[in-house]
Write a structure and sequence with these properties.
Blueprint lengths: L9 H9 L1 H8 E2 L2 E2 L1 E2 L7 H17 L3 H10 L4 E6 L5 H12 L3 E5 L13 H8 L5 E6 L4 H11 L6 E6 L5 H14 L11 E4 L6 H10 L6 E5 L10 H7 L3 E5 L2 H8 L5 E4 L41 E3 L20 H19 L3 H10 L4
Helix pairs in contact: 1-2, 3-8, 3-12, 3-13, 5-12, 6-7, 8-9, 8-12
Bound molecules: aspartic acid.
Amino acid sequence: MSVDPASLSYEDFVQGIEDRQRRRQLLFREGRPYFVLVSQQFSRADLEGLCDTATAIRRLDRHRDGVDFLRRILHGHRVMNLFAQPSTRTAESFIAAADKLGASTRLVSDMRTSSFAKGETVDDSVRTLSSFFDTIVVRHPDDDFAMRASWALARSGRPIPVVSAGSGKSQHVTQSLLDVYTLRYSFASRGGIDGKRIVLVGDVGRNRAARSLAYMMTKFDVHRLDIVCAKDHLPEGGLLEYISRHGIDVRIHERLAPALEKVGKEVDAVYMTRLQQEWDGDAGGTPDQKGKLGTNEDFVLHPEYAKYLRDDCVIMHPLPRINELPEPWESHPGFVVWRQVRNGMWMRSALLASIHGAADEIRARAARLSLV
Ligand code: ASP
């Protein structure tokens, strides 16, 4: 039975997204993503398709005819980037991604200059934006802002797609898309992501990038996930139960060095994250380190820990990094952090193209030019 989001209360819409059967009907239209809110919404086939589209775009972008072709894909489209939290990479990468496809973009990052400052509701604000734009990309400190915006637009007379670019402490779904793309690329000659072992390190509970990646790992044949995390920063909101329910054996470690000493050689990727001190209130930092930025010794990947890892172990970080991934790691053969940044642009382009129904055309053009 199909579910029309326009007929649901907000609470039912949120519950519907929790439910695997109804989620797709609420977040996809004509088989394409429309509201991009949670990692769980993508099937494995969706993820493979997005990765293939990103590769096609990346290669077309290096080809003279390809560049012109790409620029016509979203020509005349307007993308609003509404960023109510700091961002360098994500905002710029969405802008570059839309640019590659010929769309024009606008960035609003100072909420004091928007009508939110006058107390306008989310519903009215996004309904107003939909009068001028064809897609809204939103980052907001509230976990449910993008969800609420999607629901409000689904009920409006002029719905447009919404893409979450970071929802509070909850999810950063486009970051996990680019992480999956980077992992797939890194493991291309080693059988892909299936069967690989990944370690998530740091403030996993409040790092939405790590949280989204953990959800996305359930789409692959990943049997075990090691999480190195302080007790206070363990993921909440059912994440651990979700991944266990999907057949992943989750092991928690409280300190990085002993964890790597034990399992390092079996590990295929280490995903570092920073301590999310912005959520600690005015003082910032944990009680033992008030005001000081950066995590403590237990969650720093010191250069000498390279001895615990294989040379082909992939080293990732969603950035920004503070002290947890020191600079010497840049010369490790598995260091792919700058590639992640660049991949963000290709994967977000692929996502925008898929939302607007251009993915098949892009892949077909790349094939015709023998680029894939
Ligand atoms: N850039 C990522 C985010 O916006 C990770 C971080 O800030 O630590 O969530």
